[in-house]
Amino acid sequence: MNYKHLLLLFFIALLFNSCENDDCCAPVPETDAQFQSGIFVLNEGNFGSANASVNFINEENEENSAQIFNNINGFDLGDTAQSMEMHDVLAIIVVNVSNKIEIVNRFTFESLGTINTNLMNPRFAEVIGDKLFVTNWGDGGNPDDDFVAVFNLVNFSFIETIPVAEGPENLISVNNALYVAHKGGFSFNNIVSVIDSESNVVVKEIEVGDVPNSMVVQGNDLWVLASGKPSYADVETAGELSRIELATNEVVEFSEFPESSIHPENLQLSGNSAYFTIGKSVYQYDLGEELPESAEYSLDEVAVLYGFEIHDNKIYVASPRADFTGDGDLYIYDLGDGSLLDQYSAGINPNGIYFN
Hints:
By secondary structure, this protein is mainly beta. The chain has two helices and 29 strands. It has helices at 6-16, 68-73; strands spanning 2-3, 39-43, 53-58, 63-65, 81-87, 90-95, 100-105, 111-115, 122-128, 131-136, 147-152, 158-163, 168-174, 177-182, 191-196, 201-207, 212-218, 221-226, 240-245, 250-256, 265-270, 273-278, 281-285, 297-298, 307-311, 314-319, 327-334, 340-348, 350-355. Strands 1-8-7-6-5 form a five-stranded antiparallel β-sheet. Strands 4-3-2-29 form a four-stranded antiparallel β-sheet. The chain has a four-stranded antiparallel β-sheet with strand order 9-10-11-12, with no helix packed on it. Strand 17 and strand 18 form a beta hairpin. The longest helix is centred in the N-terminal third of the chain and has 11 residues, at 6-16.
């Protein structure tokens, strides 16, 4: 572990007590920072090649800057960039195969520090207060060594490890609780674990559909979309949508998709509607109603729907090449009718889209 820019980190610490929304409370830079407004595309690169990268795209000026981490910091991002968490002035980049986390200023992309200890197959990160929580798969051959690592975000020091069930993946915070979806790592799982962020203890495991992949909060409910076990599993299972009542942490409603071959992903909220994908097709869903029988439209230009975000009534899709070699693309669509609005080149195997 190493760290620098302590004055900036002290300033960040002062913000934690008054800021709970990751997206809207980052202070606006006093001067025009290079990456003040635009889109980051995270490119995982080729496994084992240490060629992960980040593109920055300014839609207004139609500018596309590649390799911004490497160019600004003078060293490589690493092997297989998995995800990025935006919090206050920070962009927290989880680099899976390198077993490290790179932390940068989200407006300048200058390195603030690297966490490279107490991680093993790290996946996703979430911040609550001054704690950074990171899901880890551990050794893929051992179903009993998965964990959530906890770090102090002020000085990047390690706090402790929370043992969890196999395959912790995406995570979302609600008040002081952390909800972790367990896809199963190199196997399959079907639970959401609940962690008390003050005591760093798992207080409950909630059974949902097989292979939960995305979660959203609406009011007093947590909605969990599970894709179901794929065709190559021992038994293929259908996707399922579950509603967890946050007051009780109980599943109070669930809907199973009608066929075992249907595997939905990418649950997102926009306004009063929810959206999810099946393959390249986009479905609109009113939470609590019957599951939709037909798609709104299909995103046919996409080779592989690898990253999916909805922002300002637009759909953003990160698409690698079909053979996962060479540079991929970012596609931007109109949310209303699915028409293609724009397209930008990205790095090798783009997998995530993040907004400043």
